[in-house]
Design goal:
about 0% strand; mainly alpha; 2 helices
């Protein structure tokens, strides 16, 4: 496994852990505020935040994959010359 692939796997583990903690926090907010504001309202709020956070983390991961791909392309171009 190359250096970039190992770094990507480590980064994905960190992002997955952070995403898990955020979703767990949103679940706790659902339980705490659901009784006061109504469970149907809070579930949509928590799901909306979860979708936004997941989209942001997905963009970060795709950006990292794009950077890795660009570096690999430059390495291949330089090594062929």
């Amino acid at each position: 496994m190359s250096l970039f692939a190992r770094a990507l796997v480590d980064h994905l583990k960190e992002v997955a852990w952070a995403l898990f903690l955020i979703v767990l926090f949103l679940g706790c907010l659902f339980v705490i505020f659901g009784r006061h504001l109504g469970y149907d309202t809070i579930v949509w709020i928590c799901v909306g935040f979860a979708v936004i956070v997941t989209a942001v983390f997905t963009m970060i991961i795709l950006g990292n994959l794009l950077c890795i791909a660009i570096v690999n392309v430059f390495k291949r171009l330089i090594s062929k010359d």
